[in-house]
């Protein structure tokens, strides 16, 4: 079998000039299995953005300044459709509300509503009332 001069020249030029197919770059050795990417943490609104808290049968909505309004069937039947609260504290863990007409304090957390009544004293234990969450459903 006789080679054509073109093939020989191309092969020689590729060796001299460095053209032609390039070898694959060396691969980096791995030191074991690749770790899994962790699941993202639950998204909790930052403290200043929490303005709506919902639960089965009702919700709380922030008004202007420090006003909050609770909407549910009981309030609709007795109080112009809503209960009125004043925000008295806000932390990374909760928003605390107070209803002077019923002498009750509420804490809205990421997953539950806690309450304590004035009649039980200022150091009374917080009691869990309802499960709920931040954000509109």
Key words describing this protein structure:
137 residues; alpha+beta; Lipocalin; 8-stranded antiparallel β-barrel; 8 strands; 14% helix
Structure write-up:
By secondary structure, this protein is of the alpha+beta class. The chain has helices spanning 5-17, 73-78, and strands at residues 52-55, 58-62, 67-72, 83-90, 95-99, 104-108, 112-117, 127-134. It has a domain at 47-134: Lipocalin, CATH 2.40.128. It is built from two helices and eight strands, in the order H-E-E-E-H-E-E-E-E-E. An eight-stranded antiparallel beta barrel has the order 1-2-3-4-5-6-7-8.
List the helices and strands and how they pair.
Blueprint: H1 5-17, E1 52-55, E2 58-62, E3 67-72, H2 73-78, E4 83-90, E5 95-99, E6 104-108, E7 112-117, E8 127-134
CATH architecture of the domain at 47-134: Beta Barrel
Strand content: 25-35%
Poorly predicted parts? 6-10
State the CATH topology of the domain at 47-134: Lipocalin
**H and E string:** HEEEHEEEEE
On the 0 to 100 scale, the average pLDDT is 81
Strand arrangement in the largest pleated sheet: 1-2-3-4-5-6-7-8
Write down the CATH class of the domain at 47-134: Mainly Beta
Structural class: alpha+beta
- Residue share in helix: 10-25%
**What is the overall shape?**
elongated
Largest sheet: 8 strands, antiparallel, barrel
Total helical segments: 2
CA distance, first residue to last residue: 80 Å
Radius of gyration equals: 34 Å
Q: How many DSSP-defined strands?
A: 8
């Amino acid at each position: 079998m006789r080679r054509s001069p073109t093939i020989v020249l191309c092969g020689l030029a590729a060796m001299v000039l460095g053209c032609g197919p390039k070898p694959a770059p060396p691969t980096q050795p791995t030191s074991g299995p690749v770790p899994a990417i962790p699941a993202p943490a639950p998204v909790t609104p930052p403290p200043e953005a929490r303005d709506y808290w919902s639960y089965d049968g009702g919700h709380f909505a922030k008004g202007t300044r420090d006003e909050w309004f609770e909407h549910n069937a009981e309030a609709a039947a007795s109080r112009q459709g809503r209960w009125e609260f004043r925000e008295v504290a806000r932390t990374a863990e909760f928003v605390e509300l107070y209803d002077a007409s019923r002498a009750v304090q509420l804490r809205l957390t990421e997953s539950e509503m806690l309450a304590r009544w004035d009649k039980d004293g200022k150091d009374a234990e917080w009691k869990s009332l309802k499960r709920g969450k931040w954000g509109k459903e």
